[in-house]
Amino acid sequence: MFKNILLPVDGSEYGLSQVKHAIDLAKTYNGKIMLLHVVDIKIVEGPLLRDLTFLSEAVTDFEYHNEIKSSLEEKGKLILQKIGAVCEEAQVAFETKLLPGIISNTIAENAKMADIVIMGKRGENAAFGTAFLGTVAEAATRLSNKPVMLVDEVYKKVEKVLFAYDGTASSNKALQLLAQMALASKYELTVINVSDEESEGRTILEEAVSYLESYNIKPEQILKSGDVVNVIIESAEAAGYDAIMMGAYGHSAIHQMLLGSITTLLVRAAKVPVVLYR
Q1: Which stretches of 25-65 are assigned E, i.e. beta strand?
Q2: Residues 192, 255: one domain?
Q3: What does the angle CA 94 – CA 97 – CA 103 come to, to the nearest 5 degrees?
Q4: Which of these three, 151, 168, 183, is where a domain ends?
Q5: Phi, psi of 148 (to 5 degrees)
Q6: Number of domains in the chain
Q7: Domain of 240?
Q8: Where does the record place the UspA domain (predicted)?
Q9: What is the pLDDT of residues 143-156, one digit of tens each?
Q10: Do strands 243-247 and 220-224 pair parallel, antiparallel, or not at all (unpaired)?
């Protein structure tokens, strides 16, 4: 199922957690990890870089451009070597790619040949940012039609999964993916639906449970009302789930902006990895 696992790495503190989650999947599915580092062309060729060349008459624009480019490429090689060494020690197959490009676009392009993408919730500049969810992670998730796993800095093996199901098309795709993952990984599963209409919520919840039971998977069930994000987060924390899984969009057009407002808020608030599928 997950034969090709794309792991974009940028040197952030999330890298070790990313690769450990990737190794878990690679061992379960006998897959290969594709390590990718993107040299950001916005840094190499952007207007700020060109402006900086005027600070010193001794350095030409061409020389300065090449110096920065070489420095970023060398940094990328070191990052790939470091993460590659972890893969090698774990005895899983891997390959490395060092590519120039716009980071989110390049990740999405390479995701076409991957079965899943594993990213940190925030990138190497997280300490200097104000957003809870990294702009690259959000953009790459929006651009890719593959499952994306957004992980935290601290790794914990995923054994207990809370699946948020709302009956939408993306949620249904995530349900089908979950069934396949649960068969291979033997996750302890719970399906949750948050709805202020009990009858409607029960129908949606039973739809997901019935589908999983057709695979001989017997999930626990939670039906609650209230604020969707708060209920899911509180439920995940109360029972100690290792990951949350869901479709990437909610019902309305407003929710479908960027990742979808509910999805974005949930990823920001979650203290465990979140697997999204749109």
Answers
A1: 32-40
A2: yes
A3: 125
A4: 151
A5: -125, 130
A6: 2
A7: 160-277
A8: 1-151, 159-278
A9: 778 999 999 999 99
A10: unpaired
The domain that holds 214 is classified in CATH as 3.40.50.620
Residue 233 has pLDDT above 70, yes or no: yes
pTM of the shown model: 0.86
Q: What is the DSSP string of 100-132?
A: EE-HHHHHHHHHTT-SEEEEESS-TTGGG---S
Angle between helices 261-269 and 228-239 (to 10 degrees): 30
Average pLDDT over every residue of 171-188? 94
Q: Among 151, 175, 196, where does a domain finish?
A: 151
Query: Hey, how many other C-beta atoms are within 10 angstroms of the C-beta on 238?
Result: 8
Query: What pLDDT does residue 204 have?
Result: 96
Whether 100 and 197 map to the same domain: the answer is: no
Read off the CATH number of the domain in which 139 is found: 3.40.50.12370
Tens of pLDDT along 66-82? 788 888 999 999 999 99
Name the average pLDDT for the chain: 86
Q: What local confidence, expressed as pLDDT, does residue 128 receive? A: 36
Cα–Cα distance between 250 and 193 in angstroms, integer? 12
Could you give the C-alpha distances from 268 to 9, 121, 131, 229, 251, in angstroms and in order?
A: 20, 8, 9, 10, 20
